[in-house]
Each structure stands twice: as C-alpha cells, then as structure tokens.
C-alpha cells in the first residue's frame, strides 16, 4: 500500500466533523494564520491541565475537608486556587451544593457560558437550544431524560450561567463511600454531576 493509499485508509476512520476540522486547520496553517505548535499546546492543556478532572478533585476535596468546603461555598475561585487544584479560575465562579431537599442544575439560556477552567469543554447538549430552553421550564423532565429521578418534594434550583457568573454543582457524596480517599472519590464525579444533570454513583468511573 502506498503512502497515499495509507492516508486515505486512516482518513476513512475520521468522522465528517473531524475531517472538516483537519481541512480547516490545514488551510489556516498554510495561510500562516495558525501555528500548529500553538494548537498542540492548547489541545494538550485541555487534555491534561484543564477539564472535568479538575472539578472532580474540587468536589472530592469538599467531601473530605469541611474547611475547604466552607471556603468553596464562600468564594469558589479563591478556594480552588488557594488549594492548588487549578492554576486559574474564572473570577465569578459560584459553588452550589446539593442536599437531601435541594438539587441544583446549571444552564446558560442565552448562549453557552460554562466554567471551562474546572469542567473543560462544554458538551454539545449543553449548548443546544432544547436543553437551554427546557432546563428552565421543565427541569424535572430534563433530569428524567438524563436518567435522574428525584423525590417529588425535592426542590430543583436552576442557575443561569452568564459571562460574569458561572457555577459548579457540588453533588451529595454517595452513600457507602465513607472512608474513601480523595482520589477514589474523585473517580465518582462526572462532568454531568457538576452541571447537575447527573448523580455520582460507585460505577460512575465507567461512565466518564
């Protein structure tokens, strides 16, 4: 097989979106608008230094450290940076805590404002119009679509994220995990948990 044929074989494994992105990157690079090395650094940052694993560590720390949790609820950005869990956090990040009586869910009704620094890239559904509209008028129905069923007397609070104010949900620690290490607990916390459309469960690691 020639190198040209090999390229086509590998290209066939890419989705249409991936092919379009690769074509756009090639054009921009050839025109000198984009530095491939800079793109690689950005991708590497989101894969290793920015992403939901940061938020998961924040939640796990709040579960095991009451002092940190108190600071997190008072000033999330300041607490996260002071604890060394992230290099930078948006100035107006607010942590909201789920309880037996209250469940929090985050949406951006105008666009797709999202706490990238602690949750990484937003999922496609978060930016989609159906979620952005239904989360406000039918939050219980949206949660059901995600497989989350709450007691009828649980209050659901929907927080509208903006460019100035963004949110991270601190879910309740799953029962049966007392005594787990912070690292073990972090594996239970998914991105959806921190948006409020999921719940941490012992098998959450397999769902990440």
Question: What's the structural blueprint in terms of helices and strands?
Answer:
Layout: H1 3-11, H2 16-30, H3 36-49, H4 52-64, H5 66-74, H6 76-82, E1 93-97, E2 102-107, H7 116-119, H8 124-127, H9 129-137, H10 139-145, E3 155-160, E4 166-170, H11 182-186, H12 191-195
Parallel strand pairs: 1-4, 2-3
Supply the CATH superfamily name of the largest domain.
Nitrile hydratase alpha /Thiocyanate hydrolase gamma
Shape: globular
Question: Helicity range of the residues?
Answer: 40-55%
CATH topology-level name of the largest domain? Nitrile Hydratase, Chain A
Which stretches are poorly predicted, pLDDT < 50 over at least 5 residues? 1-12
Sheet/helix structural class: mainly alpha
Helix and strand sequence? HHHHHHEEHHHHEEHH
- Can you tell me the number of structural domains? 2
CATH top level of the largest domain is Alpha Beta
The largest pleated sheet is described as: 2 strands, parallel
- Percent of residues in beta strands? 5-15%
Number of helices: 12
Name the quaternary structure: single chain
Distance between the termini: 38 Å
Number of β-strand runs: 4
Placed side by side, the strands forming the largest sheet appear as 1-4
Task: List its traits.
disordered N terminus, two-stranded parallel sheet, 4 strands, 12 helices, mainly alpha, 2 domains, Nitrile Hydratase, Chain A, 208 residues
Your description of this structure?
The protein has 208 residues and is mostly helical. It has two domains: 3-48, no CATH class; 50-207, Nitrile Hydratase, Chain A (Alpha-Beta Complex), CATH 3.90.330. Helix content is 49%, strand content 11%. It has twelve helices and four strands, in the order ααααααββααααββαα. A two-stranded parallel ribbon has the order 1-4. A two-stranded parallel sheet has the order 2-3. The longest helix is centred in the N-terminal third of the chain and has 15 residues, at 16-30. The model is unreliable at 1-12 (pLDDT under 50).
